[in-house]
Design a protein that fits this description.
The chain has 712 residues and is of the alpha/beta class. The protein is built from 23 helices and 21 strands. The strands form four sheets. A seven-stranded parallel sheet has the order 11-12-10-13-14-9-15, sandwiched between helices. A six-stranded parallel sheet has the order 16-21-20-17-19-18, sandwiched between helices. The chain has a five-stranded mixed barrel with strand order 2-3-4-6-5. Strand 18, helix 17 and strand 19 form a beta-alpha-beta unit. The longest helix has 32 residues. It is globular. Bound molecules: adenosine-5'-diphosphate (ADP) and magnesium ion. The site of adenosine-5'-diphosphate has 16 residues, from helix 10.
Amino acid sequence: MFVREIKIPTGNIKVKGAEKKETQFARLGIANVGSLLCHYPRERDDRRFSIPLKDFYKNTDGKVCNRFLVIAQEWFEGRAKRLLKIHIQDETGRAVLKCFENRKYLEHVLPVGKYFFLTGKFSYKDGELQSSNFENPEVDIATETDNSVNTEDGTKKFGNGKSFGIIYPIYPLTAGLSNIELIKIMKKALQQYANAIEDELPKSIIQKHRLFTKAQSLCAIHFPQSPTALEKAIQTLSYEELFFMEMLVGMRAQERKKLVDTNIKTNDTLTNGELSPLQRQLIERMTFSLTEGQQAAIKEINTDLEKSYSMSRLLQGDVGSGKTLVSFLAAVKVKEKGAQTVIMAPTELLSRQHAENAAKLLEPIGIRVAFLTGNIKSNGRKNLLSALKNGDIDLVLGTHALFSSGVVYKRLSLVVIDEQHRFGVTQRQAILSKGENCDLLMMSATPIPRTLALTVFGDMDISVIKDMPPGRKPIQTHLARLSNIKNVYNSVRFELEAGHQAYFVYPLIESNEDSNLKDAVSTADYLAKEIFPNFTCALIHSKVPDDEKQTIMENFRLGAVQILIATSVVEVGVDVPNATCIVVEQAERFGLSALHQLRGRVGRGNSPSYCFLVYSDGVKDDGKQRLMVMLKNNDGFIIAEEDFKLRGPGQIAGTEQSGNFSLGIANPISDVKILEHARRDAFAILENDPELNSEDNKVIKQVLQRASPFSY
Ligand code: ADP
Ligand code: MG
């Protein structure tokens, strides 16, 4: 039986009181013995060895763990409260337990002459060794002989094996269920059921990685004999979760490859990804040549487009690496097949910029380009929609409007999603459903950490553009305290006087009574009047009407506006090479990836560029730590990785793209090595035995069919 199949009610575990805990268990999501055994400790306290009083200073937190004798009790009358002092001693010294109101019951639990085990934090105060930092379950009654048993190997055995002398598990609890109670029930459950629990991993895998069996892992995750055993249990259970996750990922990829792309793909056009005639024509018309990364990416995409099944590819490249052009080249190939492409971007601003570039680059080589957003009204829209439907348009760029209900495509074959992290799965599905087995190219300027590439995006193929177009100067990043902002203004003025342009970015649009965040609206006024009166400023944020936004951006692009004051709307994609400075105020309020995106707005031309991250005077240490990551790294991949680590594994379960992965014990961020192994194993198995029919692999199929590995 697999552990999740043990549906026996917890009340049937013959522990006195277990049956009375059903409501508490229900609150913890424990419905039966199976889910009980999968309720893992949240932390552990190593109480295998005694730490006597005299050694309290050896531990940074003053930890002591030993058997004591109560030698006296003393009551003190305070101004408002009474205090009980219990004087205790072990073989090395004496100390005092300070018991306030909530601990008064200890008067009866620990009478003079009684032996007991205790663990707590001790420190010197008022000339005595004291502790007020111990919890009720950490006191355990002992006998006079408990501590003096000599084991066979001559070492002195410590503890009574109940809550002392062991690695003590500390569980997630709920009102009415104590840790001690849960431990008792858990022990009973393991005794009764562990032997019958079957492995869920193939034998060969367990042997290959020297993992525990499932039963061994469960015993050791709750009551490990040693830290090594615990580590091995965690490793086994983590591996198992990640293995099944990767199995599902691999099977999803397998499914996709079974779906034959009905879009025309004739074998006689197989070129191994070589550039097509029209693609070559486009490249020849350009003033620069493709970077190696761009060349490799388009080659991979071309190869995909020639395959019999749909492409599902993620194009990664740091901000400014030239992903847009790669997607244009893909659209060119699709046009040559006589089919249509959409390029969807999250903001009107960005999609308009893409559409303008596309018109400039692609119309001269005979590609019919259109731009569609929710703001295109009546006649214009009607004509556009019928052109799309009739196939008179080869490439349409726009926002979410591209998948609104009235939009029909003649033969949509390629869907490009720019800044994919701004879209959810449903939106991705909606646009894909406008065609039949469309090829999908997702682009991400926020590089995707290794973990996500292996999990959430694990069934996609990935292309990475590692290099930047030549001539780019690294952006100089400076951190500045708010009280020094005048220096930042001076540096910006210097750049403006040299004919360059600048961005100022704020966390809020308008000032908000409840918040002390800086806002773009009032600061815009101040900057324009007080700081930069000789330059033209403009304000842009999500509430500015779209046509106005468009004019402002156009003026900024043309240089008529020198200072653009904005919220993070400029975060994605905006491309104005003459802008050489960006100032982000209250930078500690932004995520690292967002800051990296913002910084990527400059450094797009040939002049040196600057990014000023201004932080509030009262910023906390960890806030500053994060900004240091920006200072030390220019590489978006490293920043994304750091950002991801700081935000934690909740990210994976939290991303809409992740589907139903909920991990119990594996941490795919810190366990990325295990994740890689699990993926390699799972994919190799699927490659050699796609139907999972071999004797060894049968168990995988059984697990997936009988007990969902992601629901307890
Ligand atoms: P991102 O990858 O961030 O989307 P873009 O596609 O916006 O980057 O490209 C950034 C800028 O680099 C654009 O102005 C684009 O024209 C330019 N560019 C793209 N490829 C090259 C290249 N191979 N050489 C020089 N400039 C390039
Ligand atoms: Mg881009």
